[in-house]
Sequence to fold (419 residues):
Amino acid sequence: MLALPLTAAEPEPGFTSLFDGASLKGWKLTNVKGEGYGVKDGVIFCAKGGGGNLFTEKEYADFVLRFEFKLEPGANNGLGIRAPLEGDAAYVGMELQILDEVKLKYKGLRPEQYHGSIYDVVPAKRGAMKEPGEWNTQEVTAKGRQIKVVLNGQTILDADLNKVTDVAALQKHPGLLRESGHIGFLGHNDYLEFRNIRVKELPRTEKDNSAPEGFKALFNGKNLSGWQGLLAGPFDNPLKRAELPEKERAEKQKQADENMRAHWNVEDGALVYDGKGRSLSTEKEYGDYELYVDWKIPAKGDSGIYLRGTPQVQIWDPSAKKNGSEVGSGGLYNNQKNPAKPSKVADKPIGEWNRFRILMLGDKVHVFLNGEMVVNNVTLENYWDRSQPLPPVSSIELQNHGDTLWFKNVYIREIPRKS
Fold:
């Protein structure tokens, strides 16, 4: 009797099948090499000597992914999660290694390069994989910053990305910070097969001004606690402020705080600036960190975020086409030697809330705007004295240019420095 071809398995309750058993419907090929990917006998295969990337058309944030895979001896592939369609998913997204570790053909691998590892960042446990030619079952859960991998019933990875504090790894892998993206298989010229691919999306809830796990709220949604007015020029310059005698600085700060209370208020859980006073500054100084900031501006509005007291991650209206604003928000506006413009326009229409996710490490900055990476590991120049490096610590500031402004959900995760 002839064996019937495999068909797509019925997914468990709550799961949606990503593979119909007969076609690549719902998938998108990118960076195709050789024969790329195909379908036969109820499986998706990555062609030997080819591959490229096979991504879901849909993007996913928090989810449980289940699938089966079969490798030839020494085969290598990858599972991209929360990845954009462009760029190397191992860096601009996140890659979970798929690698035969039984008949290993690679020598000198680092622990974070074996199967199930967050590639080049967090190592997985070994020993759960079956022999080449046998089907393996894998489950991946991505919930917030927690990434879990279960292989053949054994948990081989349970990683909190907030605990990744190695500066070199964070600078090299900004995709660790992405909140959503595509799921995909990342070919490395080896033959593999995949089947029974299904996903369950997990709900994600967010409450304004309530910091996510691992972060601290810099704005409580109720008052100006933790904030102070920025001193008037020329003492908006941290180098000049440091030269002030203590008594004179205290007096100037008192005046700045009075100005702050006159022009910065809290309305409906948002910091609101009336367009008539000075900029706002954190009372505390910060060094290396990850920062969330939600912001909104009026038509032709102009603002920015100072990092370590230094201008600035730009905020403005791209549709105004004024002073170069058509390039979009997020760029390091005051840079001269290093890139100043964002890589793309990712702003939402005027009147809608935008979200920055900013990573400040050493003198390097990553900026995500509304989930799109617009600045990738660019040096922030010391605007106040370009012959000097950035100060090791200083305030975070919300800049104004005389426009009404709104800010909320201002969160920080401090990243410790190695001594």
The radius of gyration is 25 Å. The longest strand covers residues 51-60. The chain has two domains: 16-201, 216-414.
